[in-house]
Amino acid sequence: MKLLRTSSLLWLATLVSRGWAISLLEVLQGYPQLSSLYTLVNSSSNATALLANANNFTFLAPSNDAISKFNAQNPGVLNGTQILPNIQYGLLKGGYPTLSISSTPQFIQSNLSDSTYANVTGGQAVELVLGSDGTPEAITGNRSISTSSGSDIPCVGGIVRIINSVLSIPVTTVMEITNANLQYFIAILNADGYLSSSATYVNQVLDLHDVTYFIPNSAAALAGATQLAQNSSAADLEAVFEYHIVPGSVNYSPMLKNGMSLKTQQGTNLQITIQGGDIYVNAAKVIASDLMVANGVVHVLDNLLNRFDTSGPPKPTATASTTSNPAPTSTQNSITTPTYTSSGGNSGMSTGAKAGLGVGVGVVSLALISTLAFLIYRHRRNKAAATAAAPWDNSSMSGATASPFNKFYVQRGQVQRQEDPGLGLQSTGMQQQYGADSGVAGREYGQVDGPAIPPRSPSRALRGDGSYF
Ligand SMILES: *[C@@H]1O[C@H](CO)[C@@H](O)[C@H](O)[C@H]1NC(C)=O
Ligand SMILES: *[C@@H]1O[C@H](CO)[C@@H](O)[C@H](O)[C@H]1NC(C)=O
Ligand SMILES: *[C@@H]1O[C@H](CO)[C@@H](O)[C@H](O)[C@H]1NC(C)=O
Ligand SMILES: *[C@@H]1O[C@H](CO)[C@@H](O)[C@H](O)[C@H]1NC(C)=O
Ligand SMILES: *[C@@H]1O[C@H](CO)[C@@H](O)[C@H](O)[C@H]1NC(C)=O
Ligand SMILES: *[C@@H]1O[C@H](CO)[C@@H](O)[C@H](O)[C@H]1NC(C)=O
Ligand SMILES: *[C@@H]1O[C@H](CO)[C@@H](O)[C@H](O)[C@H]1NC(C)=O
Ligand SMILES: *[C@@H]1O[C@H](CO)[C@@H](O)[C@H](O)[C@H]1NC(C)=O
Protein backbone atom coordinates (compact mmCIF):
# COMPACT_ATOMS: atom_id res chain seq x y z
CA MET A 1 0.00 0.00 0.00
CA LYS A 2 2.75 2.36 1.00
CA LEU A 3 4.67 1.35 -2.08
CA LEU A 4 1.67 1.92 -4.29
CA ARG A 5 1.10 5.35 -2.80
CA THR A 6 4.73 6.31 -3.20
CA SER A 7 4.88 5.27 -6.83
CA SER A 8 1.66 7.06 -7.71
CA LEU A 9 2.94 10.16 -5.96
CA LEU A 10 6.15 9.92 -7.93
CA TRP A 11 4.06 9.67 -11.05
CA LEU A 12 1.99 12.70 -10.13
CA ALA A 13 5.12 14.59 -9.19
CA THR A 14 6.56 13.79 -12.61
CA LEU A 15 3.48 15.21 -14.25
CA VAL A 16 3.59 18.32 -12.10
CA SER A 17 7.27 18.87 -12.73
CA ARG A 18 6.58 18.74 -16.46
CA GLY A 19 3.83 21.28 -16.06
CA TRP A 20 0.99 18.91 -16.95
CA ALA A 21 -2.42 19.25 -15.49
CA ILE A 22 -3.95 15.80 -15.26
CA SER A 23 -6.90 16.08 -17.61
CA LEU A 24 -8.14 13.21 -19.75
CA LEU A 25 -6.87 14.81 -22.96
CA GLU A 26 -3.50 15.40 -21.37
CA VAL A 27 -3.27 11.75 -20.36
CA LEU A 28 -3.86 10.81 -24.01
CA GLN A 29 -1.31 13.37 -25.08
CA GLY A 30 1.24 12.35 -22.48
CA TYR A 31 1.29 8.57 -22.79
CA PRO A 32 3.43 7.35 -25.70
CA GLN A 33 1.21 4.23 -26.12
CA LEU A 34 -1.76 6.53 -26.75
CA SER A 35 -0.27 8.80 -29.40
CA SER A 36 -2.30 7.29 -32.27
CA LEU A 37 -5.48 7.70 -30.29
CA TYR A 38 -4.56 11.26 -29.43
CA THR A 39 -3.99 12.10 -33.07
CA LEU A 40 -7.39 10.63 -34.00
CA VAL A 41 -9.17 12.45 -31.18
CA ASN A 42 -7.42 15.70 -32.06
CA SER A 43 -8.63 15.34 -35.64
CA SER A 44 -12.27 15.30 -34.54
CA SER A 45 -13.57 18.47 -32.96
CA ASN A 46 -16.56 16.62 -31.51
CA ALA A 47 -14.43 13.88 -29.98
CA THR A 48 -12.09 16.50 -28.53
CA ALA A 49 -15.02 18.43 -27.06
CA LEU A 50 -16.53 15.26 -25.59
CA LEU A 51 -13.33 14.24 -23.83
CA ALA A 52 -12.47 17.79 -22.75
CA ASN A 53 -15.79 18.05 -20.90
CA ALA A 54 -16.12 14.49 -19.63
CA ASN A 55 -16.71 13.90 -15.95
CA ASN A 56 -17.30 10.81 -13.80
CA PHE A 57 -16.02 8.33 -16.37
CA THR A 58 -13.88 5.32 -17.08
CA PHE A 59 -12.26 5.77 -20.48
CA LEU A 60 -11.09 2.67 -22.32
CA ALA A 61 -8.25 3.91 -24.50
CA PRO A 62 -6.95 1.67 -27.31
CA SER A 63 -3.17 1.54 -27.50
CA ASN A 64 -1.16 2.33 -30.63
CA ASP A 65 -0.90 -1.42 -31.29
CA ALA A 66 -4.66 -1.81 -30.95
CA ILE A 67 -5.27 0.98 -33.44
CA SER A 68 -2.79 -0.28 -36.01
CA LYS A 69 -4.28 -3.79 -35.71
CA PHE A 70 -7.75 -2.35 -36.27
CA ASN A 71 -6.58 -0.17 -39.17
CA ALA A 72 -4.97 -3.14 -40.88
CA GLN A 73 -8.33 -4.93 -40.88
CA ASN A 74 -10.51 -1.86 -41.49
CA PRO A 75 -8.44 0.64 -43.46
CA GLY A 76 -9.64 4.23 -43.41
CA VAL A 77 -12.47 3.53 -40.96
CA LEU A 78 -11.22 4.97 -37.69
CA ASN A 79 -10.07 8.26 -39.17
CA GLY A 80 -13.40 8.77 -40.94
CA THR A 81 -16.87 8.81 -39.43
CA GLN A 82 -15.98 6.12 -36.93
CA ILE A 83 -13.74 8.02 -34.58
CA LEU A 84 -16.50 9.81 -32.67
CA PRO A 85 -18.71 6.73 -32.03
CA ASN A 86 -15.64 4.75 -30.99
CA ILE A 87 -14.64 7.43 -28.50
CA GLN A 88 -18.22 7.60 -27.23
CA TYR A 89 -18.34 3.83 -26.77
CA GLY A 90 -15.08 3.81 -24.80
CA LEU A 91 -16.34 6.54 -22.48
CA LEU A 92 -18.12 4.60 -19.73
CA LYS A 93 -20.39 6.31 -17.26
CA GLY A 94 -18.95 6.14 -13.77
CA GLY A 95 -15.62 5.16 -12.27
CA TYR A 96 -14.67 1.48 -12.57
CA PRO A 97 -11.13 0.96 -11.32
CA THR A 98 -9.60 -2.47 -11.89
CA LEU A 99 -10.35 -3.36 -8.27
CA SER A 100 -14.08 -2.99 -8.91
CA ILE A 101 -14.03 -5.59 -11.70
CA SER A 102 -14.89 -9.12 -10.63
CA SER A 103 -15.78 -12.45 -12.20
CA THR A 104 -19.42 -11.36 -12.10
CA PRO A 105 -19.98 -9.44 -15.31
CA GLN A 106 -21.07 -5.83 -15.06
CA PHE A 107 -22.77 -4.11 -17.97
CA ILE A 108 -21.80 -0.46 -17.94
CA GLN A 109 -23.48 2.13 -20.09
CA SER A 110 -21.30 4.25 -22.33
CA ASN A 111 -21.76 7.63 -23.95
CA LEU A 112 -22.73 5.97 -27.27
CA SER A 113 -26.39 6.69 -27.91
CA ASP A 114 -26.41 8.04 -31.48
CA SER A 115 -29.20 6.04 -33.16
CA THR A 116 -26.95 5.41 -36.16
CA TYR A 117 -25.06 3.00 -33.93
CA ALA A 118 -27.14 2.22 -30.88
CA ASN A 119 -30.75 2.06 -29.83
CA VAL A 120 -30.21 1.33 -26.16
CA THR A 121 -31.72 4.02 -23.95
CA GLY A 122 -29.05 5.75 -21.90
CA GLY A 123 -26.19 4.42 -24.01
CA GLN A 124 -24.82 1.17 -25.43
CA ALA A 125 -23.18 -1.03 -22.79
CA VAL A 126 -19.74 -2.56 -22.36
CA GLU A 127 -19.35 -5.74 -20.29
CA LEU A 128 -16.59 -5.52 -17.68
CA VAL A 129 -15.44 -8.80 -16.19
CA LEU A 130 -12.34 -10.47 -14.83
CA GLY A 131 -11.01 -13.07 -17.26
CA SER A 132 -10.13 -16.58 -16.11
CA ASP A 133 -6.48 -15.51 -15.76
CA GLY A 134 -7.44 -12.54 -13.61
CA THR A 135 -6.99 -9.93 -16.35
CA PRO A 136 -9.69 -7.27 -16.58
CA GLU A 137 -11.65 -7.64 -19.80
CA ALA A 138 -14.02 -5.38 -21.71
CA ILE A 139 -16.36 -7.48 -23.84
CA THR A 140 -18.19 -5.81 -26.72
CA GLY A 141 -19.82 -6.70 -30.05
CA ASN A 142 -19.81 -10.43 -30.93
CA ARG A 143 -18.11 -10.96 -27.56
CA SER A 144 -14.82 -9.43 -28.68
CA ILE A 145 -12.46 -9.23 -25.73
CA SER A 146 -10.25 -6.22 -25.06
CA THR A 147 -7.85 -6.63 -22.17
CA SER A 148 -5.90 -4.10 -20.21
CA SER A 149 -2.45 -4.95 -19.00
CA GLY A 150 -1.27 -1.72 -17.43
CA SER A 151 -2.60 -0.03 -14.34
CA ASP A 152 -5.44 2.43 -14.07
CA ILE A 153 -4.50 6.01 -14.85
CA PRO A 154 -6.38 8.45 -12.63
CA CYS A 155 -7.11 11.87 -14.06
CA VAL A 156 -9.43 14.79 -13.42
CA GLY A 157 -12.97 13.40 -13.63
CA GLY A 158 -12.20 9.71 -13.84
CA ILE A 159 -9.97 6.85 -14.84
CA VAL A 160 -8.21 5.90 -18.08
CA ARG A 161 -7.40 2.27 -18.82
CA ILE A 162 -5.30 1.33 -21.85
CA ILE A 163 -6.78 -1.60 -23.81
CA ASN A 164 -5.16 -3.90 -26.35
CA SER A 165 -7.89 -3.89 -29.00
CA VAL A 166 -10.42 -1.39 -30.27
CA LEU A 167 -13.89 -1.94 -28.81
CA SER A 168 -16.34 -3.51 -31.23
CA ILE A 169 -19.53 -1.48 -31.52
CA PRO A 170 -22.43 -3.95 -31.45
CA VAL A 171 -24.12 -4.41 -34.83
CA THR A 172 -27.78 -4.94 -35.64
CA THR A 173 -29.44 -8.15 -34.55
CA VAL A 174 -29.60 -9.43 -38.12
CA MET A 175 -25.87 -8.91 -38.55
CA GLU A 176 -25.10 -10.51 -35.22
CA ILE A 177 -27.07 -13.63 -36.18
CA THR A 178 -24.68 -13.96 -39.10
CA ASN A 179 -21.56 -12.96 -37.14
CA ALA A 180 -22.27 -15.42 -34.36
CA ASN A 181 -23.07 -18.06 -36.97
CA LEU A 182 -26.48 -19.04 -35.57
CA GLN A 183 -27.13 -21.55 -38.35
CA TYR A 184 -30.05 -23.37 -36.77
CA PHE A 185 -31.81 -20.12 -36.12
CA ILE A 186 -31.36 -19.04 -39.71
CA ALA A 187 -32.84 -22.36 -40.79
CA ILE A 188 -35.74 -21.77 -38.37
CA LEU A 189 -36.37 -18.34 -39.88
CA ASN A 190 -36.45 -20.01 -43.25
CA ALA A 191 -38.61 -22.96 -42.19
CA ASP A 192 -41.30 -20.91 -40.47
CA GLY A 193 -41.68 -18.24 -43.13
CA TYR A 194 -40.10 -15.45 -41.09
CA LEU A 195 -37.98 -14.39 -44.05
CA SER A 196 -41.05 -13.81 -46.16
CA SER A 197 -41.61 -10.21 -47.20
CA SER A 198 -45.15 -10.51 -45.86
CA ALA A 199 -43.85 -11.26 -42.36
CA THR A 200 -43.63 -7.53 -41.60
CA TYR A 201 -43.69 -8.14 -37.85
CA VAL A 202 -40.13 -9.47 -38.12
CA ASN A 203 -38.82 -6.07 -39.19
CA GLN A 204 -40.95 -4.41 -36.57
CA VAL A 205 -39.30 -6.25 -33.71
CA LEU A 206 -35.85 -5.84 -35.24
CA ASP A 207 -36.43 -2.09 -35.26
CA LEU A 208 -37.52 -1.73 -31.65
CA HIS A 209 -35.31 0.00 -29.09
CA ASP A 210 -34.26 -1.75 -25.85
CA VAL A 211 -34.96 -5.39 -26.65
CA THR A 212 -34.04 -8.73 -25.13
CA TYR A 213 -34.01 -11.44 -27.80
CA PHE A 214 -34.19 -15.14 -26.92
CA ILE A 215 -32.91 -16.96 -29.97
CA PRO A 216 -33.28 -20.75 -30.27
CA ASN A 217 -30.30 -22.31 -32.02
CA SER A 218 -30.23 -26.10 -31.88
CA ALA A 219 -31.19 -29.15 -33.90
CA ALA A 220 -34.10 -29.77 -31.52
CA ALA A 221 -35.37 -26.23 -32.04
CA LEU A 222 -35.16 -26.60 -35.80
CA ALA A 223 -37.01 -29.93 -35.70
CA GLY A 224 -39.74 -28.32 -33.61
CA ALA A 225 -39.96 -25.30 -35.88
CA THR A 226 -40.15 -27.48 -38.97
CA GLN A 227 -42.97 -29.53 -37.52
CA LEU A 228 -44.69 -26.36 -36.39
CA ALA A 229 -44.63 -24.94 -39.89
CA GLN A 230 -46.69 -27.87 -41.11
CA ASN A 231 -49.51 -27.40 -38.64
CA SER A 232 -49.70 -23.68 -37.97
CA SER A 233 -51.44 -20.67 -39.37
CA ALA A 234 -49.52 -17.52 -40.21
CA ALA A 235 -50.95 -15.93 -37.09
CA ASP A 236 -49.76 -18.85 -34.99
CA LEU A 237 -46.26 -18.56 -36.42
CA GLU A 238 -46.25 -14.84 -35.74
CA ALA A 239 -47.21 -15.49 -32.13
CA VAL A 240 -44.38 -18.01 -31.80
CA PHE A 241 -41.87 -15.52 -33.19
CA GLU A 242 -43.04 -12.67 -31.00
CA TYR A 243 -43.02 -14.84 -27.90
CA HIS A 244 -39.21 -14.99 -28.16
CA ILE A 245 -38.84 -11.22 -27.89
CA VAL A 246 -39.03 -9.06 -24.78
CA PRO A 247 -39.47 -5.39 -25.71
CA GLY A 248 -38.74 -2.44 -23.48
CA SER A 249 -35.90 -3.81 -21.37
CA VAL A 250 -32.35 -4.91 -22.03
CA ASN A 251 -31.87 -7.84 -19.68
CA TYR A 252 -28.19 -8.78 -19.52
CA SER A 253 -27.63 -12.15 -17.89
CA PRO A 254 -26.95 -10.86 -14.34
CA MET A 255 -30.36 -9.18 -14.48
CA LEU A 256 -32.18 -12.45 -15.20
CA LYS A 257 -33.24 -13.57 -11.73
CA ASN A 258 -34.91 -16.72 -10.59
CA GLY A 259 -38.68 -16.40 -10.64
CA MET A 260 -38.67 -13.31 -12.81
CA SER A 261 -41.38 -13.10 -15.41
CA LEU A 262 -40.95 -11.01 -18.54
CA LYS A 263 -43.68 -9.80 -20.85
CA THR A 264 -43.08 -10.70 -24.48
CA GLN A 265 -43.97 -8.91 -27.67
CA GLN A 266 -46.62 -11.59 -28.17
CA GLY A 267 -48.33 -10.38 -25.01
CA THR A 268 -47.96 -13.26 -22.58
CA ASN A 269 -45.10 -13.73 -20.15
CA LEU A 270 -42.11 -16.00 -20.11
CA GLN A 271 -40.61 -17.28 -16.91
CA ILE A 272 -36.96 -17.21 -15.80
CA THR A 273 -35.56 -20.01 -13.64
CA ILE A 274 -32.00 -20.27 -12.34
CA GLN A 275 -31.16 -23.90 -11.66
CA GLY A 276 -27.79 -25.54 -11.18
CA GLY A 277 -26.09 -22.31 -12.20
CA ASP A 278 -27.88 -22.27 -15.54
CA ILE A 279 -30.47 -19.79 -16.75
CA TYR A 280 -33.70 -21.24 -18.13
CA VAL A 281 -36.41 -19.44 -20.05
CA ASN A 282 -39.50 -21.55 -19.49
CA ALA A 283 -38.01 -25.01 -20.14
CA ALA A 284 -35.31 -23.87 -22.57
CA LYS A 285 -31.75 -23.43 -21.37
CA VAL A 286 -29.61 -20.38 -22.16
CA ILE A 287 -26.56 -21.82 -23.93
CA ALA A 288 -24.86 -18.53 -24.85
CA SER A 289 -25.60 -15.25 -23.18
CA ASP A 290 -25.02 -11.54 -23.61
CA LEU A 291 -24.43 -11.15 -27.32
CA MET A 292 -24.74 -7.39 -27.46
CA VAL A 293 -26.60 -5.91 -30.41
CA ALA A 294 -27.33 -2.34 -31.46
CA ASN A 295 -30.78 -2.35 -29.85
CA GLY A 296 -30.26 -4.65 -26.90
CA VAL A 297 -29.04 -8.11 -26.05
CA VAL A 298 -29.36 -11.65 -27.42
CA HIS A 299 -29.38 -14.84 -25.38
CA VAL A 300 -29.20 -18.13 -27.26
CA LEU A 301 -31.52 -21.01 -26.25
CA ASP A 302 -31.27 -24.76 -26.68
CA ASN A 303 -34.91 -25.04 -27.78
CA LEU A 304 -38.00 -23.18 -28.90
CA LEU A 305 -40.12 -21.54 -26.24
CA ASN A 306 -43.56 -22.94 -25.56
CA ARG A 307 -45.83 -20.19 -24.29
CA PHE A 308 -48.40 -22.69 -23.05
CA ASP A 309 -45.99 -24.24 -20.61
CA THR A 310 -44.08 -21.78 -18.42
CA SER A 311 -43.43 -24.32 -15.68
CA GLY A 312 -39.66 -24.25 -16.18
CA PRO A 313 -37.04 -26.94 -16.51
CA PRO A 314 -37.47 -30.41 -15.01
CA LYS A 315 -36.76 -30.22 -11.30
CA PRO A 316 -33.46 -31.67 -10.13
CA THR A 317 -33.60 -35.13 -8.58
CA ALA A 318 -34.72 -35.55 -4.95
CA THR A 319 -31.20 -35.45 -3.48
CA ALA A 320 -30.36 -32.32 -5.34
CA SER A 321 -33.64 -30.66 -4.42
CA THR A 322 -32.21 -29.36 -1.14
CA THR A 323 -30.52 -26.74 -3.28
CA SER A 324 -33.77 -25.94 -5.00
CA ASN A 325 -34.64 -22.46 -6.09
CA PRO A 326 -35.68 -19.78 -3.68
CA ALA A 327 -39.12 -18.28 -4.03
CA PRO A 328 -39.58 -15.89 -6.90
CA THR A 329 -37.89 -12.65 -5.98
CA SER A 330 -39.18 -10.22 -8.50
CA THR A 331 -41.40 -9.61 -11.43
CA GLN A 332 -40.39 -7.33 -14.21
CA ASN A 333 -43.22 -6.70 -16.57
CA SER A 334 -42.97 -3.08 -17.44
CA ILE A 335 -39.39 -2.05 -17.16
CA THR A 336 -38.50 0.66 -19.58
CA THR A 337 -34.92 1.32 -18.74
CA PRO A 338 -32.40 -1.22 -17.56
CA THR A 339 -30.50 -0.45 -14.42
CA TYR A 340 -26.80 -0.90 -14.18
CA THR A 341 -24.94 -1.73 -11.06
CA SER A 342 -21.37 -1.23 -10.18
CA SER A 343 -19.75 -3.78 -7.93
CA GLY A 344 -19.62 -3.54 -4.19
CA GLY A 345 -22.80 -1.49 -4.09
CA ASN A 346 -20.79 1.46 -5.22
CA SER A 347 -22.32 3.63 -7.84
CA GLY A 348 -19.98 5.69 -9.88
CA MET A 349 -16.41 6.26 -8.94
CA SER A 350 -15.41 3.91 -6.16
CA THR A 351 -14.58 5.23 -2.74
CA GLY A 352 -11.07 3.99 -3.30
CA ALA A 353 -10.66 5.95 -6.46
CA LYS A 354 -12.11 9.06 -4.89
CA ALA A 355 -9.80 8.66 -1.89
CA GLY A 356 -6.86 8.01 -4.19
CA LEU A 357 -7.52 11.13 -6.16
CA GLY A 358 -8.09 13.06 -2.93
CA VAL A 359 -4.81 11.95 -1.39
CA GLY A 360 -2.93 12.61 -4.59
CA VAL A 361 -4.42 16.05 -5.03
CA GLY A 362 -3.81 16.92 -1.37
CA VAL A 363 -0.20 15.89 -1.20
CA VAL A 364 0.89 17.41 -4.46
CA SER A 365 -0.78 20.69 -3.67
CA LEU A 366 2.46 21.84 -2.05
CA ALA A 367 4.34 21.09 -5.20
CA LEU A 368 1.53 22.67 -7.13
CA ILE A 369 1.82 25.94 -5.24
CA SER A 370 5.44 26.24 -6.23
CA THR A 371 4.63 25.65 -9.87
CA LEU A 372 1.28 27.41 -9.89
CA ALA A 373 2.39 30.50 -11.67
CA PHE A 374 3.99 28.42 -14.38
CA LEU A 375 0.92 26.18 -14.68
CA ILE A 376 -1.49 29.06 -15.01
CA TYR A 377 0.68 30.59 -17.66
CA ARG A 378 0.98 27.26 -19.46
CA HIS A 379 -2.73 26.49 -19.18
CA ARG A 380 -3.75 29.85 -20.56
CA ARG A 381 -1.31 29.51 -23.40
CA ASN A 382 -2.59 26.01 -24.24
CA LYS A 383 -6.20 27.07 -24.03
CA ALA A 384 -5.61 29.97 -26.34
CA ALA A 385 -3.81 27.71 -28.77
CA ALA A 386 -6.54 25.06 -28.64
CA THR A 387 -9.30 27.58 -29.25
CA ALA A 388 -7.46 29.02 -32.16
CA ALA A 389 -6.59 25.65 -33.65
CA ALA A 390 -9.76 23.64 -33.06
CA PRO A 391 -12.91 25.65 -33.61
CA TRP A 392 -15.27 23.33 -31.82
CA ASP A 393 -16.99 25.81 -29.57
CA ASN A 394 -20.75 26.15 -29.93
CA SER A 395 -20.69 29.28 -31.99
CA SER A 396 -18.73 27.75 -34.82
CA MET A 397 -20.81 24.54 -34.85
CA SER A 398 -24.24 26.14 -34.79
CA GLY A 399 -24.92 25.88 -38.51
CA ALA A 400 -26.12 22.47 -39.66
CA THR A 401 -23.29 22.19 -42.14
CA ALA A 402 -20.72 24.14 -40.17
CA SER A 403 -18.38 21.17 -40.23
CA PRO A 404 -17.54 19.23 -43.38
CA PHE A 405 -17.24 16.22 -41.13
CA ASN A 406 -20.84 16.68 -40.11
CA LYS A 407 -21.97 16.89 -43.74
CA PHE A 408 -20.23 13.67 -44.65
CA TYR A 409 -21.70 12.03 -41.65
CA VAL A 410 -25.26 12.94 -42.63
CA GLN A 411 -24.72 11.67 -46.13
CA ARG A 412 -23.51 8.37 -44.82
CA GLY A 413 -26.52 8.23 -42.55
CA GLN A 414 -28.79 8.31 -45.58
CA VAL A 415 -26.75 5.83 -47.51
CA GLN A 416 -26.82 3.43 -44.61
CA ARG A 417 -30.54 3.28 -44.23
CA GLN A 418 -31.02 1.01 -47.19
CA GLU A 419 -33.64 -1.63 -47.07
CA ASP A 420 -34.07 -4.68 -49.17
CA PRO A 421 -37.71 -4.41 -50.09
CA GLY A 422 -37.92 -8.01 -51.22
CA LEU A 423 -37.27 -9.35 -47.76
CA GLY A 424 -38.64 -9.16 -44.33
CA LEU A 425 -35.26 -8.23 -42.95
CA GLN A 426 -32.99 -5.27 -43.15
CA SER A 427 -29.36 -4.85 -42.48
CA THR A 428 -27.54 -1.69 -41.66
CA GLY A 429 -25.12 -2.51 -38.90
CA MET A 430 -22.13 -3.86 -40.76
CA GLN A 431 -21.92 -0.91 -43.07
CA GLN A 432 -21.97 1.41 -40.14
CA GLN A 433 -19.27 -0.39 -38.33
CA TYR A 434 -16.88 -1.57 -40.97
CA GLY A 435 -17.39 0.94 -43.70
CA ALA A 436 -16.53 -0.02 -47.24
CA ASP A 437 -16.21 -3.78 -47.19
CA SER A 438 -19.14 -4.18 -44.85
CA GLY A 439 -22.59 -4.96 -46.08
CA VAL A 440 -21.33 -8.13 -47.67
CA ALA A 441 -22.57 -10.47 -45.03
CA GLY A 442 -25.81 -8.53 -44.83
CA ARG A 443 -26.43 -8.95 -48.51
CA GLU A 444 -25.62 -12.60 -48.42
CA TYR A 445 -28.12 -13.00 -45.69
CA GLY A 446 -30.61 -10.97 -47.64
CA GLN A 447 -30.33 -13.24 -50.65
CA VAL A 448 -31.93 -16.14 -48.87
CA ASP A 449 -35.23 -16.69 -50.58
CA GLY A 450 -38.03 -16.81 -48.10
CA PRO A 451 -40.41 -19.69 -48.63
CA ALA A 452 -44.07 -19.02 -49.09
CA ILE A 453 -45.95 -18.94 -45.83
CA PRO A 454 -47.03 -22.49 -45.05
CA PRO A 455 -50.62 -23.30 -45.95
CA ARG A 456 -53.11 -22.40 -43.30
CA SER A 457 -54.59 -25.28 -41.41
CA PRO A 458 -57.45 -23.75 -39.51
CA SER A 459 -58.61 -27.09 -38.20
CA ARG A 460 -55.50 -27.46 -36.08
CA ALA A 461 -55.63 -25.35 -33.00
CA LEU A 462 -52.16 -25.00 -31.57
CA ARG A 463 -53.35 -24.40 -28.08
CA GLY A 464 -54.66 -27.86 -27.35
CA ASP A 465 -51.82 -29.57 -29.13
CA GLY A 466 -49.17 -29.25 -26.50
CA SER A 467 -46.27 -31.03 -28.10
CA TYR A 468 -44.50 -27.88 -29.05
CA PHE A 469 -46.81 -24.96 -28.46
C1 LIG B 1 -20.60 17.63 -33.80
O1 LIG B 1 -21.14 18.56 -32.89
C2 LIG B 1 -21.99 19.53 -33.49
C3 LIG B 1 -22.35 20.55 -32.43
O2 LIG B 1 -22.73 19.93 -31.23
C4 LIG B 1 -23.20 18.83 -34.08
O3 LIG B 1 -24.04 19.75 -34.71
C5 LIG B 1 -22.74 17.77 -35.06
O4 LIG B 1 -23.85 17.04 -35.53
C6 LIG B 1 -21.75 16.84 -34.43
N1 LIG B 1 -21.21 15.93 -35.42
C7 LIG B 1 -21.29 14.61 -35.26
C8 LIG B 1 -20.66 13.80 -36.31
O5 LIG B 1 -21.84 14.09 -34.30
C1 LIG C 1 -7.44 7.50 -43.26
O1 LIG C 1 -6.28 6.67 -43.20
C2 LIG C 1 -5.99 6.03 -44.42
C3 LIG C 1 -4.81 5.13 -44.16
O2 LIG C 1 -5.12 4.24 -43.13
C4 LIG C 1 -5.71 7.06 -45.49
O3 LIG C 1 -5.46 6.40 -46.72
C5 LIG C 1 -6.90 7.98 -45.64
O4 LIG C 1 -6.60 9.02 -46.53
C6 LIG C 1 -7.27 8.59 -44.30
N1 LIG C 1 -8.50 9.35 -44.42
C7 LIG C 1 -8.66 10.53 -43.84
C8 LIG C 1 -10.02 11.15 -44.03
O5 LIG C 1 -7.79 11.07 -43.20
C1 LIG D 1 -22.51 11.94 -23.84
O1 LIG D 1 -21.78 13.07 -23.43
C2 LIG D 1 -22.35 14.31 -23.81
C3 LIG D 1 -21.40 15.41 -23.42
O2 LIG D 1 -21.07 15.29 -22.07
C4 LIG D 1 -23.71 14.46 -23.14
O3 LIG D 1 -24.32 15.66 -23.55
C5 LIG D 1 -24.58 13.28 -23.54
O4 LIG D 1 -25.81 13.33 -22.85
C6 LIG D 1 -23.89 11.98 -23.21
N1 LIG D 1 -24.69 10.88 -23.73
C7 LIG D 1 -24.99 9.83 -22.98
C8 LIG D 1 -25.81 8.78 -23.60
O5 LIG D 1 -24.60 9.73 -21.84
C1 LIG E 1 -32.33 2.78 -34.40
O1 LIG E 1 -33.72 2.87 -34.59
C2 LIG E 1 -34.10 3.69 -35.69
C3 LIG E 1 -35.60 3.70 -35.75
O2 LIG E 1 -36.12 4.16 -34.55
C4 LIG E 1 -33.52 3.16 -36.97
O3 LIG E 1 -33.79 4.04 -38.01
C5 LIG E 1 -32.02 3.00 -36.81
O4 LIG E 1 -31.49 2.37 -37.97
C6 LIG E 1 -31.70 2.15 -35.62
N1 LIG E 1 -30.27 2.06 -35.44
C7 LIG E 1 -29.63 0.89 -35.43
C8 LIG E 1 -28.16 0.95 -35.21
O5 LIG E 1 -30.19 -0.17 -35.57
C1 LIG F 1 -18.15 -14.06 -33.58
O1 LIG F 1 -17.86 -14.92 -32.49
C2 LIG F 1 -17.98 -16.29 -32.79
C3 LIG F 1 -17.77 -17.05 -31.52
O2 LIG F 1 -16.57 -16.67 -30.92
C4 LIG F 1 -16.98 -16.67 -33.87
O3 LIG F 1 -17.11 -18.03 -34.19
C5 LIG F 1 -17.24 -15.82 -35.09
O4 LIG F 1 -16.27 -16.07 -36.07
C6 LIG F 1 -17.24 -14.34 -34.74
N1 LIG F 1 -17.68 -13.60 -35.91
C7 LIG F 1 -17.05 -12.56 -36.37
C8 LIG F 1 -17.63 -11.92 -37.59
O5 LIG F 1 -16.05 -12.11 -35.83
C1 LIG G 1 -48.30 -31.91 -37.72
O1 LIG G 1 -49.10 -32.61 -38.66
C2 LIG G 1 -48.49 -33.82 -39.12
C3 LIG G 1 -49.42 -34.39 -40.15
O2 LIG G 1 -50.07 -33.38 -40.86
C4 LIG G 1 -48.29 -34.76 -37.96
O3 LIG G 1 -47.61 -35.90 -38.41
C5 LIG G 1 -47.46 -34.11 -36.88
O4 LIG G 1 -47.35 -34.91 -35.74
C6 LIG G 1 -48.10 -32.79 -36.51
N1 LIG G 1 -47.23 -32.11 -35.59
C7 LIG G 1 -47.67 -31.68 -34.44
C8 LIG G 1 -46.68 -30.93 -33.63
O5 LIG G 1 -48.78 -31.85 -34.06
C1 LIG H 1 -21.14 8.78 -11.58
O1 LIG H 1 -21.81 8.02 -12.58
C2 LIG H 1 -22.51 6.93 -12.06
C3 LIG H 1 -23.01 6.11 -13.24
O2 LIG H 1 -23.74 6.91 -14.12
C4 LIG H 1 -23.63 7.44 -11.17
O3 LIG H 1 -24.34 6.36 -10.65
C5 LIG H 1 -23.03 8.25 -10.04
O4 LIG H 1 -24.04 8.81 -9.28
C6 LIG H 1 -22.15 9.34 -10.58
N1 LIG H 1 -21.42 9.93 -9.50
C7 LIG H 1 -21.31 11.24 -9.37
C8 LIG H 1 -20.51 11.71 -8.21
O5 LIG H 1 -21.84 12.01 -10.17
C1 LIG I 1 -4.31 18.98 -33.14
O1 LIG I 1 -5.09 19.58 -34.15
C2 LIG I 1 -4.67 20.90 -34.52
C3 LIG I 1 -5.60 21.38 -35.61
O2 LIG I 1 -6.94 21.22 -35.24
C4 LIG I 1 -3.24 20.89 -34.99
O3 LIG I 1 -2.82 22.21 -35.23
C5 LIG I 1 -2.35 20.25 -33.94
O4 LIG I 1 -1.04 20.14 -34.45
C6 LIG I 1 -2.87 18.89 -33.59
N1 LIG I 1 -2.04 18.32 -32.55
C7 LIG I 1 -1.55 17.09 -32.64
C8 LIG I 1 -0.70 16.66 -31.52
O5 LIG I 1 -1.85 16.35 -33.56
Automatic annotation (TrEMBL):
Signal peptide: 1-21
Residue spans crossing the bilayer: 355-377
GO cellular component: fungal-type vacuole membrane
GO biological process, one term: macroautophagy
SUPFAM superfamilies: FAS1 domain
Domain FAS1: 21-305
UniProt feature, compositional bias: Low complexity: 317-331
Keywords for the protein's UniProt record, in alphabetical order: Membrane, Signal, Transmembrane, Transmembrane helix
Annotated spans, Disordered: 311-346, 428-469
InterPro entries: Adhesion/Biosynth-related (IPR050904), FAS1_dom_sf (IPR036378), FAS1_domain (IPR000782)
Protein name: FAS1 domain-containing protein
Organism, as annotated: Hyaloscypha bicolor E
